Backbone:
């Protein structure tokens, strides 16, 4: 089972469009030069990016949030609703649920837990629960 570890470049670009600060991303994507470009001195790069751990105080062109990065940005509470994550057999859910009545404010579900958390992050930004840059 190969679990998705970080958000894609496209997902990170969408967060940038929502004006979310991405400078604290734990990982980053990087397009490496091809072997031919190293030998021949050209600017050719690989078609697929590689994933690297980000280093503090260095700006990366393609930052990538991990699930923990997303959780650090999501509010723990919205009014009386508590952030709740569940990983089930085939899906991951991220929701804000009232602990006593078990009523749900919002629920995001996806095949990967990180994608459900990403959708919740987008929802929280769009609805003013997370400040922008």
Residues:
């Amino acid at each position: 089972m190969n679990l998705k570890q970080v958000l894609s470049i496209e997902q990170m670009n969408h967060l940038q469009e929502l004006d979310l600060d991405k400078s604290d991303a734990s990982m980053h994507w990087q397009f490496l030069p091809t072997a031919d470009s190293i030998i021949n001195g050209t600017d050719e790069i690989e078609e697929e990016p590689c994933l690297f751990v980000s280093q503090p105080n260095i700006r990366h062109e393609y930052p990538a949030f991990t699930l923990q990065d997303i959780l650090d940005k999501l509010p723990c509470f919205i009014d009386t609703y508590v952030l709740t994550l569940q990983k089930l057999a085939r899906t991951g859910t991220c929701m804000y649920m009232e602990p006593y009545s078990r009523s749900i404010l919002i629920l995001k579900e996806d095949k990967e837990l990180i994608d459900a958390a990403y959708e919740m992050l987008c929802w929280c930004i769009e609805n003013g629960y997370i400040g922008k840059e």
Summary: The longest strand covers residues 81-87. The beta strands are 27-30, 50-53, 62-64, 77-78, 81-87, 92-97, 104-110.
